[in-house]
Amino acid sequence: MTAVRRALQALGLALAIVLGSSIPASAGLADTAAVPAMTLGTATVVAPGNVVGKLTCGPTTSTMNVTWTPSGSAKVTGYTVTVHFSDGVQQSSFAAGASTAAWSSSIPTYNVTAYAVRYSVTTQTTYGWFTQSALTGSFRC
After folding, report:
1. How far is CA 127 from each of CA 36, 75, 91, 117, rounded to the nearest angstrom?
2. Closest C-alpha among 53, 68, 46, 117 to residue 88
3. What region, left, alpha or beta, does residue 110 occupy, with left being phi > 0 and alpha being psi -120 to 50 degrees?
4. CB count in 10 Å sphere of residue 8
5. Cα angle vertex 38, ends 34, 44, to 5°?
6. pLDDT at 105 (0 to 100)
7. Contact 112, 140 (CB under 8 A)
8. How far apart are the first and last CA of the chain?
9. pTM metric for this prediction
10. What class, spelled out in words, does domain 49-132 have in CATH?
């Protein structure tokens, strides 16, 4: 008796699934809504302007100097000054402050006698975007 009852229940369940899945849904989606016009813009990070390099040669220690016009971009945190050596080596130094406009560092005179140097300055922002200036002219002792 239990086997017959289980068989009838399984048959009824199978029949309900087959018939239930063949009936289409009756939901109607006829409502519409206007979407307002939107404009999407992206921020532009402006590189520092008027980047000017200088190298003051000394007998054992020389001084590298760079000046620039600060970027007008929003949320600037500072600038990265990169020294590009003629052998392909690059050394970077962070100059903090959005209004910072100069950087100076000493270097052994041998390094700037053996290799010419050029400078670039990169704007850094709080949101991680950056833009590098053009390279300055070449300097060597």
Report:
1. 28, 8, 23, 30
2. 117
3. alpha
4. 10
5. 170
6. 95
7. yes
8. 107
9. 0.70
10. mainly beta
